[in-house]
Specification:
Layout (H helix, E strand, L loop, with lengths): L2 E4 L6 H8 L9 E3 L6 E3 L13 H5 L1 E6 L12 H18 L8 E3 L24 H7 L7 E2 L6 E2 L71 H7 L8
Parallel strand pairs: 1-4, 1-5, 2-4
Antiparallel strand pairs: 2-3, 6-7
The structure holds zinc ion.
The site of zinc ion has 4 residues, from loops.
Length: about 240
Amino acid sequence: MQYIVIHDTEASWDTTLKLVQDPTYVSWHYSVRSTDGLIAQHVPTKDVAWHAGNWYVNMHSIGIEHEGFAPSGATWYSEPMYRNSAKLVKYLADKYDIPLDRGHILGHDQVPGITPAGVAGMHWDPGPYWDWQHYFQLMGAPLQAHAVASSDVVRILPGFEGNVHPVTGCETATVACEPQGANFVYLRTAPSASVYQLPCAAKPSCSRPMDLALTYQLPACQPTSLAFTCWAMCPSVERRV
Ligand SMILES: [Zn+2]
């Protein structure tokens, strides 16, 4: 067992229970209810369930569904749901020796398609409105922002509630979604006047260093962009991007 895959059902609780009992439908190990975090188990963890759209991942994972609709995000992803789900993940990770990190506790939206043709059909749940930072905090394994000089990989922890970005296609392709806190930042490779602008007084702070990486610039302070300077101001960040 290597992974735990986090999903949302795109269905109400009643429908979820009907679907998982339908022998012609797919399967998963656990469901978590939105209102109170109730957990139901449908498949023993020793058995493979059909939930990830990737048979290798299915063979090596436990699938946990969460009642809700990804486009509505926080409306469904309640605190009792986060808390009980985090407890369940922590328990399972301990039992099966699965590391509590984002390389092993996956969103369905991270699971790769097994062929190039299959990629477009992969699911995007639990989506941009699942609060991974909070979820890992509840597991007692908070995510760490980092950048390592020897690697091109950085982790940015942008926060959640105040981290609002344009998202389209929740209901209809190209149509803007209702603004709400999200779990991502857009990757930028060059300064841009259209990205977030902070007043000069809002100096970057090392308490939330990654908030300021990549997407922020302070044109009133330095016309060229402080996006990179922000990194250098924080001792935990060693690398420019
Ligand atoms: Zn899914």
